[in-house]
Amino acid sequence: MSLLTPEWWYKNIKNYYELGIYKEPDVKKYWSPLKKISEDQYREIVGIVEEPAAEEVKIEQGDPVERT
Fold it and tell me: What InterPro entries does the database record attribute to this sequence (predicted)?
């Protein structure tokens, strides 16, 4: 059994990033090509926030059609 679990990788990569030891490209390599963390974990560590799709924004701004 490996001691290097997915949780271990995530925790340590995040810690190194927060300490300034790793930069964004360093974290990205652990997602791809190394596959030690998921894409969601990579985005969480480096603080990437997804923008809502254009159609979602349009709906949120209000639909002019009256609904009953």
Answer: XkdX (IPR010022)
